Amino acid sequence: MVSTVFSDSIVNATDLRNNQKQWFEKAYIKPITVNYGRRQLAIMNREQVGRLYAAQHYSELVLKACEEFSENSKSTIFPWIEYLSNEGKTKFHSELLRQTIQSIITGDWAKVEYIIDDWKATAEVERNPALAAVLKSKEDPSQYVEIEG
Amino acid sequence: MNECKDFLRKTPADRNRAAGRLKKLKPPLQGILQYDVTKDDVRVWYRIDKNEYNVVIKYAGHHPNW
Question: Which pTM value belongs to this model?
Answer without folding.
Answer: 0.86
